[in-house]
Amino acid sequence: MTQNAAGTANTQRMTVVVTGASGRTGSRVAEAARGAGLAVRAASRARGFDWEDPTTWAQTLRDADAAYLMYPSDVGSPAAAEGVGALAREAVGLGVRRLVLLSARGEDQALPTEEALTSSGADWTIVRASWFSQNFSEGPLVEGMVHGELVFPAGEVREPFVDVRDIADVVTAVLTSGDRYVGRTLELTGPRLLSWREAVAEISGATGGTITYTPVPTRSYGEALAGFGVPPEEVELLTEVFDTLMDGRNAHVTDDVREVVGRAPRDFADFAREAAAAGAWKA
Ligand SMILES: NC(=O)c1ccc[n+]([C@@H]2O[C@H](COP(=O)([O-])OP(=O)(O)OC[C@H]3O[C@@H](n4cnc5c(N)ncnc54)[C@H](OP(=O)(O)O)[C@@H]3O)[C@@H](O)[C@H]2O)c1
């Protein structure tokens, strides 16, 4: 990225590598970045970029100005700390210094990954997101909801669900704001707290059907995941992360979306209405 005479960021020619570009956040980051006039280099395995194969990284990063880094499955895995650290060092070596990492709010297990980024020499920004609203409409939770029940180990804890489109808008604003957010850790939340039961009730109302929420102990949920063939080490990490995140530590909202994009974050009710209209929970 270059700066013009007035010292503001010149984003005309800025190229950003977007990892996970076929996923929930990456697809929206790519769309928002294109909308802001950035050149997007979409990165995923189909496009020859593999987090598990470092020999694919340089061709993806070379001559870019910035990168959005999301590590598949979970940012709190030991593989994420290793991969993000190694990729960040390689990016810096190639002159791609501006790196934005998607992390998870309140997830102690993600701290080594964040540290791997911040010690890499990059001009970093960390975006710690709350639980995505789109977890309910895209991914493994959808199937149960389509059949009328969400079984999940979240008890009655409350969470400020964040719309992934707000994550994308924040990442894009961060990338197009020069050095303003370099060295900052942002915590993104939606505008209000909802329990899983309340969230499912809002979705149920939006669909005009009946979807119920059944809380279960984390251990039984882990056993169910194992029964679906999720590898033991992933089950162990996910259940540990769920126990960490569901203890009430995240039951408050922040103002960071508004600070960065200058408007309130999207409300869960709007997400539920739009996703229902798009048929997210239709059989
Ligand atoms: N869900 C939440 O509420 C939440 C909250 C905060 C933070 N997070 C963090 O968000 C991240 C997940 O982000 P997301 O939900 O946007 O992802 P996602 O929808 O699960 O998509 C995963 C993306 O990663 C790509 N991918 C998978 N394996 C890959 C590999 N070996 N090499 C390169 N690309 C690979 C996939 O593309 P291909 O399959 O085409 O390669 C896909 O684009 C995790 O780190 C998680 O900890 C999640």
The ordered string of helix (H) and strand (E) elements is: EEEHEHEHEHEHEEHEEHEHHHH
- Tell me, what is the CATH class of the domain at 2-130 and 162-191 and 251-266? Alpha Beta
Distinct ligand kinds: NADP nicotinamide-adenine-dinucleotide phosphate
Q: What is the topology, as strand order, of the major beta sheet?
A: 4-3-5-6-7-10
Distance between the termini: 46 Å
> What fold name goes in the CATH topology slot of the domain at 2-130 and 162-191 and 251-266?
Rossmann fold
Number of strands: 12
InterPro entries: Ergot_Alk_Oxidoreductase (IPR051604), NAD(P)-bd_dom_sf (IPR036291)
Protein name: NmrA family transcriptional regulator
What features would you describe in this structure?
- This protein has eleven helices and twelve strands.
- It is α/β, with parallel strands linked by helices and 283 residues long.
- It has a domain at 2-130 and 162-191 and 251-266: Rossmann fold.
- The strands form four sheets. It has a six-stranded parallel beta sheet with strand order 4-3-5-6-7-10, sandwiched between helices.
- The chain binds NADP nicotinamide-adenine-dinucleotide phosphate (NAP).
- Residues 20-26, 44-46, 49-52, 70-72, 74-75, 102, 104, 129, 131-132, 135 line the site of NADP nicotinamide-adenine-dinucleotide phosphate.
- It comes from Streptomyces caeruleatus.
- This is NmrA family transcriptional regulator.
